[in-house]
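Suppose you are handed a protein chain with no further information: no name, no annotation, nothing but its sequence. What can you learn? This example shows the usual starting point.
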Amino acid sequence: MTRLIPISLFALLALGSTGIPLSAQRGRSQDEPVKTCTAISLSRPGFGVAYRGPVKNDDYGLIADVPSGLTGWGADPVAPFHGFTIFLPSDNSSSGCILFEIHLRVDLGEHGQPSMRRSSARAVRIGNVRGWQEEKIGEAGGIGLENIVIEFSIPRDGGVADGSVWLISPLADLRENQALFRDFVSGLRFERAVHR
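A reasonable first move is to predict its three-dimensional structure. Written in structure tokens, the prediction is:
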């Protein structure tokens, strides 16, 4: 039996405006092309909520720090928090970004829980929790790019929060962008996570 779940357009837009398209969230394969910032996020500089410096969200017990001089762009202020996109400076025609997205897992009791770990991923620390990282180098629109994605699941009292942090970087800016990404990822904290 198929169960219909009402989802408001508001919630649908909120998820889409800061997060990864559903097709990109699960089942990525090594055969897929590298992603661009416009492919993984509908956020654009100057639109939505601007996040600068320390960001705290009590719903997820999250503390993040947007790198100095940069801004994270999230959904409309009346939409629920599901993350933000930080657009990185570049001297090239293609800019990079860091996308942070998080959501509560909804268990309908009809299917098994998907594993966040893929066979090609390696274990990494994401702040004070463990995640799984994959990397890919390729070309999009004639520009060499690297994609790094770290996925994580955080057991919490009464549920699980799933999320990911992406770095999309032109190869020409890779060293600077990787340093910003490492600093951002290492500074993430989840206050109410059940550590295992």
